[in-house]
Amino acid sequence: MDRGISDGAPPRLDFTALPEAKSDEDENDGGSSASEFEYQHTLEVVFDADNAHRRKSSLVTIEDPNLETRSGSAETRENTACFVHHLLEIQRRSRKSNTNSLQNINEDTKVNKAVVFKDESATQSRMLTKRQLADMTLGVREFSKRLGSVRLRLKVETVFLLTKAHDESLIGYTRDIVEWLLSRERDTLYIVYVEDTLEHNHKFDAKSIVSADTSRKGRLKYWNNELCKKHPLTFDFAIKLGGDGTLLYASWLFQRIVPPVLSFSLGSLGFLTKFDYSGFRETLTAAFKDGVTVSLRLRFEGTVMRSQTKGQHQDLVEQLIGEEAENDYTHKPDGSYEILNDIVVDRGPNPTMSSIEIFGDDEHFTRVQADGVCVATPTGSTAYNLAAGGSLCHPENPVILVTAICAHTLNFRPIILPDTVVLRVGVPYDARTSSWASFDGRERVELWSGDYVTISASRYPFANVMQQGRRNEDWVRSISEKLNWNSRQKQKSFKEWSNDDESKS
User: E strands of 181-299, at which residues?
Assistant: First the structure.
């Protein structure tokens, strides 16, 4: 055991970055509200006293010889990740060297926040081998469990604020949070990004917010979809006002790297939103000062694959799992999406049901005649999957849920698969009609004969901030409240006849 750590109190470990020389290029490089030569200078890892699984953590100094081996593609990925994904990359490498994932946390590693993200096929999980995919998903699961027992205290400078769309009643709440974050009373002069539609909104009145204090000048900025897509590292922390649909929108905005998202419940349904808005001051103060508990939610990577042999007599089963001809590419990708809830392939506006082929890895599962097929994450098990008759699933289960929507026959039942399976859901060449694919209820894409969608576990999980010490309790309570569990009147117990009653009879 490390010296200086008592047996009674949980260890509190502070990590502080060592000074590093600044280059002229670093000082002149703009595009981000946060300093380009700083990266999360302070991290505090606090182990819960009530947690049975305690782990030690240590800081690797800059003289550590292990740091010299960080080069190539691994270093590039490390320098293009938010703090949680930065730790996740360390977790992936530590599994290869059989070391603890919370060791080797190097606070001197810089993040280039000006990086422009591009869709690179080499980073897509569908391109991984079976072993690589299994290692990746196992690493995410292991790291998620460790994050559940610690609090991460981040040095937050730039805050992303997302408000439920088309709800004017929430503009006032947004203004209140912005004014609180920009106030001189805060220990840090936060830079706040709100949606660009609020810039000229009369109810939000951005000009009056900035003019109220000279220190606020230049600290209220505006985001759009393009900024979230190309420069996700601009934001250190995300705050969301709305319901579960707004959280799904946050996942849709950040198609790769996702900053930790703290959600205030202001919607009609709240399976994923855990914090009450009325106490936002206390909640944010505790989050920035004492740290946050992060849950990594599994996301899927869905890729649309277009057939290149249309108009010919082909067999989709033979193309996908049969003997492949050398250099014969039958399909090409046409868009890839990261989703948090589900991917649905359905009949769309067609009056007749869809004919859908389902493949898992190199196996042909079945052909389904139904209105559609819902492939859900554990997070999405309470959405369309549940309405279609699928099973409820705890969000920490590493699984893929496949449920038919109004199947024509009862021979295909809901199935739960491990997250190491690569699913392919497609339209056979002899199908009567086309089908439509939707990703988290967005981006409807028509699938013609021979087209299919590849579905696999994403290497970019969704970092959701949870209430401290209530990781499992919150999920059970949400399910119980939303589905009205235990609302039925209790069954009455039997009242035994007494001997006196028997003698009288």
Answer: 191-195, 220-223, 237-242, 261-265, 275-276, 293-297
205 catalytic residue (yes or no): no
Of 26, 213, 236, 244, which is the active-site residue?
244
User: What CA–CA distance (Å, rounded) separates 403 from 122?
Assistant: 30
pLDDT, one tens digit per residue, over 76-132 is 444 444 666 666 666 666 655 554 444 433 333 344 444 444 444 445 777 777 778
Average per-residue pLDDT in the chain?
76
444-485 pLDDT, tens digit per residue, is 999 999 999 999 999 889 999 988 766 666 778 778 877 888
CA 152 – CA 149 distance, rounded (Å): 10
Please name every residue paired with 150 in a beta bridge, in sequence order, or none if there are none.
47
Query: For residues 32 and 19, what is the distance between their CA atoms, to the nearest angstrom?
Result: 21
Burial of 172 per CB tally in 10 Å (0-12, 13-18, 19+):
exposed
C-beta of residue 80 within 8 angstroms of C-beta of residue 111: yes
User: Over the range 243-278, which residues count as b (16 or more CB within 10 Å of their CB) and which as e?
Assistant: bbbbbbbbbbbbbbbbbbbbbbbbbeebbbbbbebe
**Over pLDDT 90: what percentage of the chain?**
39
Asked whether the beta carbons of 246 and 277 are under 8 A apart, the reply is: no
Helix H or strand E encompassing 406:
none
